[in-house]
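Q: Here's a chain of 96 amino acids. Please give me its 3D structure as tokens.
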Amino acid sequence: MSTAMNFSSKAFKPRAPDKGSFPLDHLGECKDFKDKFMKCLRDSSFDNSRCRLQSKDYLQCRMENQLMAKEPLERLGFKDLLEDAPPSPADADSKP
């Protein structure tokens, strides 16, 4: 008895995920931010809600160094951290 599997002849074409995959920081441009975030996680028993400022700073560094696509921080879940913050230089550049 043969147990061959028949697959469609249509080739699978992989595509990159919409979010969640980005280049590694080979030059260590954001290493200090990453280290602060990881230390915060360890110190808080990996309760990431206590490390949101460090997470925001790390993601900002990655965006500024073209290590991930630029996204408004509000879309990344940091709206509550921005309400009292002064506008960033990137925001000032985009205003007419």
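Q: Can you summarize the key feature?
A: The radius of gyration is 20 Å.
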